[in-house]
Amino acid sequence: MVLSVSERTFIQEVLESPVPVLVNFEAPWCGLCRIIHPLLLQFKAQCGEQIKLVGVNADENFKLSNTYKLKSLPTLLLVENGTVRHRLEGFRGREDLRLALDEIKLTYTNRAKAYTTSKTADLECRSA
Questions:
Q1: Of 37-46, 81-90, 95-104, where does mean pLDDT reach its minimum?
Q2: Which of 12, 28, 70, 109 is most buried when burial is the number of CB atoms within 10 A of its CB?
Q3: Are 68 and 75 in contact (CB under 8 A)?
Q4: CA separation for the pair 107, 87 (Å, rounded)
């Protein structure tokens, strides 16, 4: 399930999130938005708790659409610690998106492994 975010909840759910957030700017009339939705759900399932997935209706949240200078829909932003780390727009279809999501997933699963490894090493050092 994708959490629906509005201008009212964006700061709390996205900018202040303790985990990276993939923001999907979409609209009900956007055919490509509907086509990629299953891929985004699959991506979320594969990433688990390492990345949060939220949706923003670009038509109903005009300030956010302007703030992030949307040129086309869908537009995906990966936000980490309040900063946009990746911007995905203008992809041609599922395969384009799948490749971009795989790259993001690889980046964040490697980062999580490195974090876990360094924490374990830190604990081992303290125990010694």
A1: 95-104
A2: 70
A3: yes
A4: 14
Residue 33 one-letter amino acid: C
Point out the residues that are catalytic: 30, 33
Taking residues 12-18, report their average pLDDT: 98
User: CATH for 3-127?
Assistant: 3.40.30.10
Q: What is the mean pLDDT of residues 22-30?
A: 97
Residue ranges per domain, the chain? 3-127
Q: pTM for the complete prediction?
A: 0.84
The verdict on whether omega for the bond into residue 18 sits within 30 degrees of 0, i.e. cis, is no
Q: Measured between alpha carbons, how far is 54 from 16 in angstroms, rounded to an integer?
A: 13
User: CA 32, CA 112: separation in Å to the nearest integer?
Assistant: 31
On whether the CB atoms of residues 73 and 30 are closer than 8 A, the answer is yes
Between the CA of residue 114 and those of 20, 82, 100, what are the distances in Å? 16, 22, 21
